[in-house]
Structures
1.
Amino acid sequence: MKNENMLIETGWNIDNSYAHLPEIYFRSHSPTPSTSPKLVIFNETLAKSLGLNVEELQRDTGVAILAGNRVPEGSFPLAQAYAGHQFGHFTMLGDGRALLLGEQITPTGERFDIQLKGSGETPYSRGGDGRATLGPMLREYIISEAMYSLGIPTTRSLAVVTTGEDVLRDSTLPGAILTRVAASHIRVGTFQYAARWGTRQDLQALVDYTIERHFPEVKGSENKYLSLLKEVMKAQARLISKWQLVGFIHGVMNTDNMTISGETIDYGPCAFMDAYNPETVFSSIDRQGRYAYGNQPSIAGWNLARFAETLLQLIDDNQEKAVKLAQEAISNFPELYQSYWLAGMRAKLGIFNEEMEDTSLIDGLLTMMEKYKADFTNTFRFLTIERPEETTMFGTEEFSQWYNQWQARIDRQQESKEDSLQLMKKVNPAIIPRNHRVEEALEAAVKKEDFSVMEGLLNVLRDPFAYCPEQEAYTELPPESDRPYRTFCGT
Ligand code: AMP
Ligand code: MG
């Protein structure tokens, strides 16, 4: 009876399938309670879609769960084990400041991980304090929700609570917990952990679990492990192409930050590029530019090769044959990625069909954009709203030539000009979370406890393809600064 009431009250309907995996994959652990939790941002739309009770969740008892002071009925909190290549170096990691509360089963029967990020030390904290601070958690909230609205697969943000405790970083900062919602938190690093420290049975259990949860369609295939590899490659090719097409730079594409589901995860030092330049890096710790914008597709390929290695023993008993099959699959990644990217780029230019010369048309534009330091988002936006005169390249001979070539390309296809512009509006966002806007929102929230600036920003980010007057102010570039924008890992 009590169970039913709980369910009606808050809507939590938690299962713990991950806890049925072999015990090497997790450590059962409870969140550290917060002294005086306060809900500062709550995602009502997401809550509703998860089947949660929007009113109850915002009351004290509901907030207590988001603050780690109470676990929802049926939950079995745990920290997940994983390893990863960080900037190319393999290491043991695990949830050092996050706990999985379980999986919420939605009214339509979907399953989503519910994770508290910043909820205190865990057995994998390795000397860290297990805490998170308000700025980075709000940053993850803003950018992950913006990604969602841009149509990019991503983990989502349900809420941020402040804990009422100070957290010591370079200075003292307000502690906070983000509730993260994900298709799952299974990473390439989870597989690396399994292959390195688990038995064959352990690995098999993880693989079967992952197939069941994310790729049930491969169950019937001849070699389901090879099929799994191919499906994950597809999901990642699709994801990374979507990043490239909006100018998103993840910033820390370590193998532990690459999901098997194909969702973007871990919004630490990520940011959107302003002026187009493939060498753009924002992260303060990425001194070699390993994770620069232009490197993201090849890094994804590198990470997938690490994933493939973990599956070798299952792909075939004959090691040589397994390597050959995996290599064949992996070598196809650049082409696979390119096909998603090219399809996306064609759409960005209002092109419906395929012509051989499209690649050179696209390259021509990008080369010019780099040369004239053209803003990535606004260039496509100006083409979409037929205001080419506002692009940085306008007035040059090369731009008029390119423009004429593009117009001729559009005229050659069956669809009308109007159809092209419609298509462009659907895929070229007018709005991205511009770095100066994000900073402005965070500063007001963290320094002045004024959350209205962030609310305003979230509001326009919710419909990035609206092309409405209310968005205009958010399309403006940051004032010129002699300092490059820098981001930091969200600790
Ligand atoms: P990330 O940079 O968020 O991908 O984290 C890399 C690793 O560091 C993961 O194992 C995290 O759990 C761990 N980590 C990050 N911040 C903290 C922290 N404040 N306390 C403990 N572990 C942390
Ligand atoms: Mg991470």
2.
Amino acid sequence: MTWQWKTIIEPFKIKSVEPLGFTVRDERLKVLEQASYNLFKIPASKVLIDLLTDSGTSAMSAEQWAGIMRGDESYAGARSFFVFEKAVQDVTGYKEVIPTHQGRAAERILFSIVGGKGKCIIANSHFDTTRANAEATGAQALDLPIKEALDFEKPGLFKGDMDVLALERNLKEKGQSVSMVIMTVTNNSLGGQPVSMKNMKEVSNICKKYKIPFFIDAARFAENAYFIKLYEKGFENKTPKEIAKEMFSHADGCLMSAKKDALVNIGGFLAMNNTEWAKRAREIEILGEGFPTYGGLAGRDLEAIAQGLKEVLDEEYLNYRLKSVAYLGEGLRKHGVPIVEPPGGHAVYVNAKKFLPSIPVEKLPAQALACALYLEGGIRASEIGSLMFGKHDEKGKFIPASMELVRLAIPRRVYTQSHIDFVIEVFGEVAKKKDLIQGLRILEAPEYLGHFTAKLAPVS
Ligand code: F0G
């Protein structure tokens, strides 16, 4: 059914609700100070609308909750594992299915096999944990997005694509030191932009030519499939499931954080056809995650993932999902807020560098904007900028990231259109007062994934 109405309706009704965290401005200022201006340290009870992440924040369906009750908690060979394995095989087509407690565990296991000193892993863009896990093995994590992806103002249909010329050049130069190519769908680090089937096919062919394994980081595979249906010629009449299957058919395997497009609160997996790698992955898994038929999860979680993988490919749901994110983007544009164009599948990304030109990148404009948003309306968003990706050189000098973005990630099936209208209204207020926003400086941060725990303070 195609939805011809202007009003976006959520394609579900609500059975169970939880209260929002209402606070007043003075209280929020204290909360911010106590959290050292790090939004990860704010108690969720003090957040009104939580757009920190779309990860693990989905509302589950009645059928998923029914699956929770059906869960078989046998240590080995649980019935729920086979339900899960079949659901993953049904979408991906890969034989070997290895559950993990979340996406980064799948990354750690995979990179223990293909990473290491002297190796290079190439992606359209690595997400922060993917990069950190690759680098933690001593490998280099190289991003090769298309140039258009870095031009945030310019709309384009498949800005998640990989630069195939740069890929071929790197494979020629680096040879077998490139141990894997990964396509992140959608490209979370650069605006949640989709990857076209054409690009997936081209990358696959290049990888075959150079005999390099090609994997998909499938966290948001269903949203990517729906973008292909909407915008890529030849896919108009295919179902999201057919498109997803075709995407996976171009790669040798995938890793997935089920906390996104499997519509669950915890879980992940590795899936592949290479039985030798799968054997090694299971050995590593037993050390850290658990027996390979539960992999750090409970049987009930496996049931919920299996059901979520089916529900996420529903066309009514995907249409609502992409339209509601685009609606937020449209509302922000009306207030003159510069966003990464076009809005992504799971989030709208605000270009803080452009929105706050008077705050230099060393003073973390994206984090400053995220804090201002919380102070104004109790909305929590995440920074994708120099706090997340900034580095220190050998002399200890801070090298800022190339982008300063604030991501407004929309949890799946959680907020309604009026919540989104509220976010747009708050942004309007922030835009009016933007000259009062102060920059920030880092007081302390650990070497890896420092943004989760860093302490910051305002600078005038
Ligand atoms: N890959 C991508 C593309 C991701 O976005 C994430 C997580 C991961 C891997 C890691 O998965 O969290 O289950 O361990 N992204 C979250 C986010 C954290 O907010 O975008 P995980």
